[in-house]
Amino acid sequence: MMAFVDQLRNVLRSGKLVYGAKQSEEQILAGAVKAVLVSEKAPPEIYERIIYLAGIGKIPIKIIELSTKEMGETFALAYPVSVASILDEGDSKIVAEIEKETKK
């Protein structure tokens, strides 16, 4: 998990993310998302829809073991976040890390 947190910090510093279910859904449908991070405490309708859309697009998904409040804090935001989508991983290797985890 620590290596993942380090990779996440790299994305925050050098990459590009969108936060929230609505923006993530738009970017997934546009084909711009490299990977999706979903809070395990996301509302069921959001969780299921994002998982479904990402599955159709064959986008790697990481379920984050944080509440939506903790996930928002991880991204240094003052509000809860259910979903974050990586558009550009910058100089991190986070997408490869997530893909590796999902193939286990």
Measured as a percent range, the helix fraction is: 40-55%
- Straight-line N-to-C gap: 15 Å
CATH architecture: 2-Layer Sandwich
Largest sheet: 4 strands, mixed
Biggest sheet: strand arrangement: 1-4-2-3
Structural class: alpha+beta
Number of strands: 4
Task: Kindly report the CATH topology.
Answer: 60s Ribosomal Protein L30, Chain: A
Q: What share of residues are in beta strands?
A: 15-25%
CATH superfamily membership: Ribosomal protein L30/S12
Total helices: the number is: 5
Rg from Cα: 12 Å
Q: For this structure, what is the CATH class?
A: Alpha Beta
The tally of structural domains comes to: 1
What do the pLDDT scores average to? 92
Listing every helix as H and every strand as E from the N terminus to the C terminus, the arrangement reads: HEHEHEHEH
User: Which regions have little confidence, pLDDT < 50, spanning 5+ residues?
Assistant: none
